[in-house]
Design brief:
The complex is a heterodimer.
Chain A: H1 2-36, H2 40-52, H3 58-70, H4 74-87, H5 92-103, H6 116-125, H7 130-153, H8 158-188, E1 191-194, E2 198-202, E3 211-216, E4 220-227, E5 230-234, E6 240-244, E7 248-250
Antiparallel strand pairs in A: 1-4, 1-7, 2-3, 4-5, 5-6
Chain B: H1 2-37, E1 42-50, E2 54-56, E3 61-70, E4 86-102, E5 105-120, E6 124-128, E7 132-135, E8 138-141, E9 145-150, H2 171-177, E10 178-184, E11 188-190, E12 195-203, E13 206-214, E14 221-228, E15 235-239, E16 242-256, E17 260-264, E18 268-275, E19 286-293, E20 297-302, E21 313-317, E22 320-326, E23 330-332, E24 337-345, E25 357-359, E26 363-377, E27 380-393, E28 397-403, E29 406-410, E30 415-419, E31 424-429, H3 472-508, H4 510-527, H5 530-549, H6 561-569, H7 573-590, H8 598-618
Parallel strand pairs in B: 2-9, 11-20, 21-29, 23-31
Antiparallel strand pairs in B: 1-3, 3-5, 4-5, 6-9, 7-8, 10-12, 12-16, 13-18, 14-16, 15-16, 17-20, 18-19, 22-24, 24-27, 25-28, 26-27, 28-31, 29-30
Helix pairs in contact in B: 3-5, 4-5, 4-8, 5-6, 5-7, 5-8, 7-8
Classes of the chains: A alpha+beta, B alpha+beta.
């Protein structure tokens, strides 16, 4: 009986995973065919089915974003480009299309700090993702384990190895703290995109309050505070206000 | 017992009699209360009245039906008779309510008023038949009312007006002394052309007060108020060779919105003038109140000539000037600046849409504010509109801000003209923030932009997580490696601790071990086996040095033993010389042939070795 269970675990489970992966791939390829034929609505239906199945893949996000763009829904297009960028920050296709898309939005938000130095820092920071930080942290962790082994196994080389053990341990601790704080910040203050035509940003979380400004489709906003169905958001130029939660989709 | 019993009976009978009286009294009170609680309901009176018995056909008359009721909770609506010559333009109700209690009787009194606004349909004398209400089987009705409808407005004719002293008053003569003159700037205008209409009060009488009775309505016109008087000005003006005191009452600019002939409603004032007489008591004058109205004004609105060229007409008729201005002449790409489009016209700017700005280079334009103003010039009213635009240039270089042509009808030139202002030029510095052409995917050489390119087909669509925190392998990897390195560290620590303990043990036991070996050497000496004895002496020295220095005996060689001993025991002078001599002697005896006298020398060497070890141990 144990052998049968082991067989199920070691043979059937990987096989089922492989099967599901290939099933996703066939759906994805069908969606690509529809896209190539210009049937964007049908392609979007298939891409959406994959997304509903919980498939998180940069190529899928990218193609979905392109489909939304072709259908004229720039808000959702930006949302999926941003999601793709989180998984593949160095993807040139995603970056190019996102850059083009943000240039074609209804309103251009001029960042609060728009000097070249801040633009460069911001551009550099856009390459640093949580995933990348996690990998760097894993690298330094592995390096720490290897150097610690060397330290223990070769007593004669301890003097030389010791500094590497300390260095890798310090870097590992730094990146672990950085990754955790980045994760918590991203969890508590996620970025979102306006997917409706436009939303009015109010001065207080009550419908009767003063309208401060209007945000248009595709504008990126950061969650600052959440209160019931209302959220306080800020945009790149520093303006803040309250909006209904359901008007913004979070990346 | 008996007397007690009789007494009790009499007492009970007395009590029974009192109880009956109490019950009867209570019953009466209850009946009275019930009567008070259910009072009689009735309509006390029903009256009808009108606010005026003589009314102009352009005016309205108010018919008020008043019902006084007692304890009536719900009164049915009155039934109006057939109204010949009138139309009911509106109706409303009002009521007042009071409660009075007299001798414990509560009465609810209500005055219910039904107010009807009647609009005359034709001239003549009409009788409004009785208004009726049927309530609980009884029909209540009002008296008939007579109303006379005259042409225009029913101003007081003055007939029957008598001053306090009995002098009859000629009101028409009074109206020659005080009147309102309404003057339009143009009697015939184009649709959309401005007409300035002024109402001026002319008076040669002593005015005590005036009050507005009826303001004109300008249906068919877009109205822009220029002036409304708040007090009498008393300027002196000549009219028909007579001097008057004048006050400009009202001035409006009208813009016809449809064609046709329009007669404007008059302005009606109620004026109180002081009438003086020559008698002794008339020196101070007596006040007299009557109504005065402006003359009728008719404006004929004609259609505009047909446009020769097809284009979007702004519906502005008259003069128009358009100017484009800006806040900055130089601005960096991506930073905002403000531009203004200022329109000034005698036409109706209320009908115009904000003009669209066009930029010669890439940039963004938002309409951020609109301000309206007006100014009186050349006896006309100029409306001013200032549109404020926020512009964010995105491309460096010379940026020209222009507006679309605004087509209007110029009355001076009598033709349609397109207002084309001078563009406003801004120098945009810095680098462009948006590329001129759409980004293309050069790697794949697509011509129509990268949006046509999608990520290709795949055999397996792998999942990828934004963070590794959600993956169990991330935690497993950390736990396994940390556990492994921990266990390994503990193992190595233990191992090294044990090794260190053994070295320490051997160090402590070094003398004893060396002396034990020397004991074996002594035994060989007794047996005469000198070779073995020398070997044991050498071994004793080497073991002692090895254990004391914490090294393994096999690490001690004939080459390094002297240096290790010197370092370990800090050998100097005679001790060092002795140690080296013993070692050299051992080497010499081990590798040379033996003679009889050598036994004494070996014994001597044995003694010296023991002494040296004991000496070193004592240090």
């Amino acid at each position: 009986m144990k052998k049968v269970l082991m067989l199920v675990c070691f043979v059937m489970l990987p096989a089922s995973i492989l099967f599901s992966l290939s099933d996703h791939a066939s759906l994805y390829n069908r969606a690509n065919e529809q896209y190539a034929q210009g049937q964007y609505r049908e392609a979007l239906t298939l891409y959406s089915e994959l997304l509903e199945r919980g498939v998180r893949n940069p190529s899928l996000y990218y193609n979905t974003a392109n489909t939304y763009f072709k259908l004229g829904q720039v808000g959702y297009a930006r949302l999926f480009y941003e999601r793709a960028l989180l998984l593949a920050p160095f993807d040139r296709d995603v970056r190019n299309n996102l850059k083009y898309l943000t240039g074609a939005l209804e309103e251009r938000i001029v960042p609060l700090y728009s000097e070249s130095i801040f633009r460069n820092i911001s551009g550099f920071a856009s390459y640093i993702t949580l995933r990348m930080l996690s990998f760097i942290e894993l690298f330094f962790f592995t390096a720490f384990v290897v150097t610690a082994h060397l330290f223990l196994l070769v007593p004669s080389a301890r003097d030389r190895v010791k500094r590497w053990v300390y260095t890798t341990a310090l870097l590992f601790a730094l990146f672990l703290a950085g990754t955790v704080s980045y994760y918590l910040h991203a969890k508590n203050h996620p970025d979102g995109v306006v997917t409706g035509a436009q939303i009015e940003i109010l001065s207080a979380p009550v419908p009767e309050s003063e309208i401060l400004f209007t945000l248009y489709e595709g504008t990126k906003a950061t969650l600052k505070e959440s209160r019931g169905e209302w959220i306080r958001i800020s945009i790149a130029d520093g303006r803040q206000g309250w909006a209904r939660r359901d008007r913004i989709n979070f990346i | 017992m008996i007397s007690y019993s009789r007494g009790y009976t009499v007492e009970r009978q007395k009590k029974t009699g009192k109880s009956i009286i109490t019950v009867v009294a209570a019953g009466i009170v209850l009946l009275l209360s019930a009567w008070a609680c259910f009072p009689s309901e009735r309509i006390v009176s029903l009256d009808a009245s009108v606010d005026r018995s003589k009314v102009g056909i352009k005016e309205t008359v108010t018919l008020t039906v008043t019902a006084h009721t007692e304890n009536v909770k719900s009164l049915p609506k009155p039934t109006l008779p057939e109204l010949d010559g009138f139309d009911v333009a509106g109706e409303r109700t009002s009521s007042s309510f009071s409660i009075s209690i007299v001798n414990g009787k509560k009465t609810q009194k209500r005055e219910q008023r039904y107010i009807y606004t009647l609009k005359p349909l034709e001239q003549g004398t009409f009788v409004i038949d009785p208004v009726t209400i049927q309530y609980k089987g009884t029909m209540y009705s009002t008296s008939p009312i007579t109303v006379t409808v005259v042409e225009g407005y029913a101003l007081d004719s003055g007939e029957g007006y008598v001053l306090d002293d009995g002098t009859p008053l000629d009101i028409e003569r009074l109206r020659q002394g005080i009147f309102i003159l309404a003057e339009p700037s143009e009697a015939t205008v184009y649709e959309g052309q401005q007409v300035v209409l002024s109402y001026k009060l002319y008076s040669r009488l002593d005015i005590d007060s005036i009050a507005l009775k009826s303001a004109p309505e300008f249906s068919g016109f877009y109205k822009e108020d220029i002036y409304n008087a708040t007090k009498l000005e008393n300027r002196r003006e000549m009219l028909n060779e007579q001097e008057y005191e004048t006050t400009l009452l009202r001035k409006v600019a009208l813009y016809p919105i449809r064609q046709g002939s329009f007669t404007l409603n008059p302005l009606i004032l109620e004026a109180t003038v002081i009438i003086k007489s020559d008698d002794l008591f008339g020196v101070f004058g007596r006040p007299f109140t009557f109504q005065i109205r402006s003359n009728d004004v008719t404006v004929v609105v004609t259609p505009l000539p047909k446009m020769e060229k097809a284009g979007e007409f702004s519906h502005i008729v008259g003069e128009l000037s358009v100017e484009i201005a800006g806040r900055d002449r130089t601005v960096a790409a991506g930073e905002s600046t403000t531009c203004y489009v200022i329109l000034k016209s005698t036409g109706n700017l209320g009908v115009i849409n904000p003009p669209q700005l066009s930029l010669s280079k890439r940039g963004r334009v938002y309409l951020s504010d609109t301000k309206s103003d007006r100014v009186e010039e050349n006896e006309g009213l100029y409306l001013i509109k200032k549109y404020e635009y926020t512009i964010i240039p995105e491309e460096s270089g010379r940026l020209e801000v222009d507006t679309e042509d605004i087509v209007y009808y110029d009355l001076g030139l009598e033709r349609y003209v397109a207002a084309d202002p001078e563009p406003f030029t801004i120098t945009v510095t810095g680098s462009s923030i948006v590329e001129k052409t759409p980004i293309t995917e050069s790697r794949r050489r697509l011509k129509e932009g990268s949006f046509s390119f999608i990520k290709g087909d795949t055999r397996r669509l792998k999942r990828r997580e934004v963070t590794l925190f959600s993956s169990p392998y991330y935690y497993l990897y950390h736990i396994l490696l940390v556990s492994w390195i921990g266990v390994f560290f503990l193992f190595k620590s233990k191992q090294e601790s044990l090794k260190q303990n053994r070295v320490l043990f051997l160090k402590v036991r070094a003398t004893k071990t060396a002396l034990g070996i020397l004991g074996r050497a002594e035994g060989f000496l007794e047996k005469g086996e000198l070779q073995k004895a020398v070997h044991e002496i050498h071994l004793a020295l080497a073991t002692y040095v090895a254990h004391k220095s914490g090294r393994a005996p096999q690490d001690i060689t004939t080459r390094n033993i002297a240096a290790i001993a010197e370092e370990q025991f800090q050998l100097e002078g005679a001790e060092k010389e002795d140690f080296v001599n013993i070692l050299d002697s051992c080497m010499m005896f081990m590798f040379s042939s033996w003679r009889r006298e050598d036994e004494g020398r070996v014994r001597n060497m044995f003694s010296r070795t023991r002494e040296l070890i004991e000496k070193l141990e004592r240090r």
